[in-house]
Proteasome lid subunit RPN8/RPN11, contains Jab1/MPN metalloenzyme (JAMM) motif (Halobellus limi), 135 residues
Amino acid sequence: MLAIARGAYDEIVHRGYEGGEEEVCGVLAGKHGEESRVSDVFAVENVAEAPRIRYAMDPEALLATIDRVEADGMEVVGFYHSHPTGPPHPSETDAERATWPGYSYAICALDGYPYLGSWRWRGDEFERETVVVEA
């Protein structure tokens, strides 16, 4: 399960809309576990060659963000990115590039009403998890 604070959820959706036709991405932060809790999100620049259909986090910015998360007393819970035109689930490329087993990969699909789903990377496949938005 992934519990996400309302403010963090709203930030992901707003950033997705601000990104327009390009995917946005970042880090989910809070308390990591089988029932993870996201209290904060941190945007990381998408440096993919084709940002309309891919995301790639700037490696230096990602490391700096992880350091900041830990310095603030939180844990990395996982990562998020948007799919401006869908689909509302991980793509084949998302699975090929996933590298953090046991962590959440949230996707915000914006092709209609915003939808935020999350999947745990199990090392060889994604497993869908329940998302709960908390006040």
